Request: fold
Amino acid sequence: MNAQPLGAAEALVSLIDASVHFGRVPALQEVTLTLRRGDCLVLLGSNGSGKTSLLRVLNGLLPCSSGSIGFGADPASAAPHRAGPLAAMVFQKPFLLRFSVRWNILLGLWLRGVPKAQRRDRCDAALRRVGLLDLAERSATALSGGQQQRLAIARAWALRPDVLFLDEPTASLDPSAKREVEGLIATIAAEGVTVVMSTHNLGQAKRLATRVAYLEAGRLVVDLPVDRFFNDVLPDQATQFLRGELAWP
Amino acid sequence: MSTVADSLGMAITLVMQADGALLQVVGLSLHVSGMACLVGSVVGLCLGAWLAVSRFPGHGVAVWLLNTLLALPSVVVGLLVYLLLSRAGPLGSWGILFTPTAMVIAQSVLVVPLIAALSRRLVMSALQDGGDQLRSLGASPMQAAFLLLLHERMGVLTILLTAFGRAIAEVGAVMIVGGNIDGVTRVMTTTIALETSKGDLPLALALGALLLAVVGAVNLLIGALQSRGGPRTEALA
Amino acid sequence: MAMISSQRRTAFVASYVIALTCSGLLLDQAQARDKFIVMASTTSTEQSGLFAYLLPAFKQASGIDVRVVVLGTGQALDTGRRGDADVVFVHDTAAEEKFVADGFSKKRLPVMYNDFVLVGPASDPAQAAGRNIAAALSKIARSGAAFVSRGDKSGTHAAELRFWKVAGVDLASAKSAGYKDCGCGMGPSLNMGSASNAYVLTDRGTWLNFKNRGELKVLVEGDRTLLNPYGVMVVDAAKHPHVKSALAQTFADWVTSPAGQKVIASYRIGGEQVFFPGAAK
Reply:
């Protein structure tokens, strides 16, 4: 945390030895991680490895049982979630309200206190970028799986977040929908939004990530830039994971 | 069983004659129970939503109390409201005992626990699906609760229908606070009780059939509204 | 925010329904503006059908609506004590005199009287038929035949207890085998009596209107002690200032006036006179 190399990006969220326990079950164990602006951090790991818990801790949705979390460079400043970076989250199964597509986005903007004058334009802009503008009046629950996920992304994007969290966003989608969603995530990352995403899909990790973290049983085992992650020699567990998964690009 | 057959025939005759007194009684039943559900839903939905998302010491006791009040007999509610509204009681100066307003108050008290308990469960179950997402969008716990009630509006409608059924079918509370005054506070259930006590059992059964028919008509109307949502309105759980 | 049109439709219908429901409230307020008094009376009087005949005549004469709350005599007097009624019209002279003595009314005015009859199964197992109620009751007690009592502090119940006493039967110590205390009104007691072929003491008015007779018929009538006097009492404004004393007094005066007494005497059920004028001349 001390000597930052010149030109290193601003730290958005710093975790030090963060642990999360659900009763006696440890979901995260002593994870130390700093999320920097501009990162596209992909979390890899098998089910139950703690990816979702880590995402939720970084987002402020889940409190740590021990350890510390700081928003901004100083880990001691455990400011409340709202004072930290603006975050939005997309879940594997998008939760949309039983109203129109447009209304779902307007709701997100209203909850964040975006002034009324701007809401309509930002909503339409977001819909246009994900290609759902002509479906704006349709009931959100009548959309296909891929369309719903694109809507969830549009909803998050319209908020102009500093950080976008995604929890296995393409896991339930068919291949063409997967590609569409990946494309959107790449566009968002290219615009400068910091992205944190968990996935099973190694090919996705290779395509999108600037940095990859591997979790096993709640511990952060590896945390490397993407090119080093896929080329260097890794601890055994990680290597086994990669080999096991490599069959599915 | 000939009494039952007689009664069904009588029920149909009553409807066809559309006697003024009968219409007045049916209208008053709908008015009193409808208003009670309106008032009860405002209080009950807020209470249920709040209990679903709030955390405070004694929360468990509050939920236990709510669930226990579900079993409050209507006669007891009637008695409590009567003691409140009686001239000798604290709110006697309002002078509303033996009026339809008193009946609305009594039935509201009756349905609030029902609406609150059911809406609390509805919100809690909906929170499991969407609570995280709404929180991540910046909704406060109460905002999330109300958004989910809007989201599950068909569930809310079903809760209100259940409450309406409970209200319109009860006799203990309205009898005590209304006094069953002919032309003023007589509703379908108190009329049925009266005719039974007079020994006119076929008429009592006929009115009972009529009561069911009225509630059935209300349910049909709600069902029509649901399906008018059309293919746009998704499968209503 | 734009909602889909089916929701607009739902919102419209919902507001329509709410408007309809609320309009009932306006009707309620409108009713409240008419002149009216609240009268506490008994189930037996109401079920005889007298009020449906008498009160419209009063309304025509005075323009005042009488809203009748129908309870047992004990409850009716309690309602008067609490000030929830403006006038009380019951048939239990002893209880009424206590009401006046306690200061809840200035005066009890006698209005009319009807009579009680003893009904029972046509087969008459206790051989109670006749003109003497005390004798009938002691035969019923000795034979252990089924008897349904109201047991509800009503005027009828009070009368029943007086007759048992005269018959020399001490209910407290030895209830006869068939004695059933239902704590209910006249109609439900008759229902129970009809279902279990029991003897029941009832007022003639309720009996004439009662439709579920089964095998029951009138077995004892005509005994002078079976006469049942009614009194009307205006609740004293000194105890309850809000009471509509003037309007209530109008009712009390009318019902004891020659005009009111004539209406009472002319009430018939199946051609039979049920109530007899009894006002002080």
About this structure: The CA atoms of residues 180 and 186 of chain B lie 5 Å apart. DSSP finds ten helices and no strands in chain B. Chain B has a mean pLDDT of 89.
